[in-house]
Write a structure and sequence with these properties.
The complex is a heterodimer. Chain A is mainly beta. Chain A contains 1 helix and 28 strands. By secondary structure, chain B is mostly helical. Classes of the chains: A mainly beta, B mainly alpha. At the A-B interface, strand 28 of A face helix 9 and helix 16 of B.
Amino acid sequence: MSLTRRHFAGLCAALGTLPMAPLASALGAPAFLSAYRDENGDYGVAALDDMGALLFTERLPGRGHDTVCAPNGQTAITFARRPGRFALAIDLKDRNIPYAFEAAPNRHFYGHGFFSPDGRLLYATENAYEDERGVIGIYDVEAGYQRIGEFDTHGIGPHEAILMADKRTIAVANGGILTHPDFPRWKLNLANMVPSLAYIDLETGDLQELVALPPSLHQLSIRHMAQAGDRSIWFGGQFEGTRAEIVPLIGRHRRGSEIELINLPDPALSRLNHYIASVKASADGERIAVTSSRGNMAYVLDAIDHRIIESIPLTDVSGCAPLGNHFCFTTGQGALRGTRDTQLDLSFDNHLTGLLGVA
Amino acid sequence: MRHWIVAAGLCWAVSGSVPGAVGPAVADTNMQAITRGMIEGHILPSYAALIDAAGAQQMAVDALCEAPSQTALDEVRTAFSDLVIAWSAVEFIRFGPAREDNRFEKLFFWPDRNGRGLGQVQGAIANADPTVTERDSLQGKSVALQGLMALDFTLFGTGSEALATDDETATHRCAYAEAIAAAIASTSEAVLNDWSGNDGYAALMLSPGPENPIYRTEGESLQELLRSMSEQLQIMHDAKIVRVAGEALADARYRRAPFWRSGQTLPTIIANAEAMLALNEAGQFADLLPEQSQRFAGTARFELRQVVSRLQALEESGDTLETLLAGEDTHGRYAGAALPLSGALRIIGDVYPAELGLTIGFNSLDGD
């Protein structure tokens, strides 16, 4: 079901917030987008320019998660954070009124997605919670984000999904954690979770490859990922086992082979506090950045020799986006680092989306 | 398995100052005292009481299996009531030794969405599965087969009346119940064992520092406890009250509550709230919070006492949960426990951390 602006206003009112008209005129081109919570506890999505200046914000009816941009750079979609059901389409260029739509009945968003290469379809990771399986919902952009179908992700709890560089394969991180909106944010299967990495054909939805972690790491929830220049998928996990165990949190996978776990030296590894919040690749694909909000630390790794090139201690760092071959980072305390350092009176949410390089 | 410290290859003095620990001295001392009070005053003795209750349960079931009778079954059921109330005092601890080896789920597999765990228990009884009647083999099986919810069905579910008789089918069921009780005792002992001693989890929480594999500051140790309390209050509010009561009388679903078969839903929620009260006292928040905020400890106490007294009034009626949730007045009173739970949650989840200067990051608190 899609929502009109009027319906969205109703939805916002029902949720106790009021939609706000688009803000100030956009002076520069948006370079970054991030969901946030402001000082009043209201949620929104913010656009910043390449120097970190705030260009405009749009209100959200609840906490947002990731934002994805269409290939033509005109539209961006901010997804609700799980178990949210709203998505907001923002017009980045003409600043038309945002358009909101909802997840299907018995589905909620996980907060991530991507556009098809031609920009006509939007894909979103979703929870088919009554069936206890993960799906990728498919939305027809021209038809007002009408949901036209879904693919099985062959796992529980799909979180981030990306379109690989071949423009034909979807890589999905099946986090493995069973949740149900009746028990918000409660993990229902920690004893027997099975995270996996699935490769799915964009056109047919067929499963091409499914790889799992070794049984000893079955409680490492694979959540976020990026593709390196050598086409391998780098992923970051969040460990649900006892925190006294020091386990690898970052892995790398090449199609057709086993998962390779990245053995960061200690104390760099334990510093991450069992938690990776974002994984991004640099524009040239030779560097991988990972953030840990729980470890107050970000690392930039060399994608070839897997060494830590740079350590960036930063309180509550989570969002990360490439800026050329470097990276920018955002924090829950309103800091933006990596371009001109900026401090805003809001909490940046988990993910930062970089728009430079998009048409 | 004991590897809190071994895992990181570390060793440090259990008492005494930790080099490199930073922060305002007075606040740190207080935080340490609060953490110590909660661990020594509530967590450790409550786990010990759980082990005792599990042992008593095991003995009672043993006596029932030896000489089945209604009296023996009644005693088993009374012991079960003591056991789940003892459990409710430590239910909020979902970290550390309870996370190891899925011990938490082994003790308390709930919520059981779609009745999957229940189906396993019913299947084991219906098929007289020989592998569930010995503790060791039971402990190697599904977490759903070996905990309090499995025992709840075994002792109170359909067919449990036969436990009072010499009936053939009851023999297996009784042996299964005994194995569950033994498994609960064993798992609880493993948890307490990992908390105890110079290299136990209590020592770990009380020796934060740069070398500590988990807790770097005294604030982080205390944060873990406050976060666990908040989660428990949230679970009580969301899953045990609101989701069970529903929005209106017609939406009430008593089967969504834990321990409805044994009639222990209200006693266990009351015991959950009493545990929060006990922690509030053991942590001495009324004395150890910064002076200007000590009054909040009284607010938390007031709210939690409200939860207890409202639910106690319902419990004293002697009616089943099903009956209570079917009556307009009693349904409203059950649902009404959500209000003081929210109040307690606000104090313990927001006010205490803020007053103690424990800034929990927006993303690190509840990431995704």
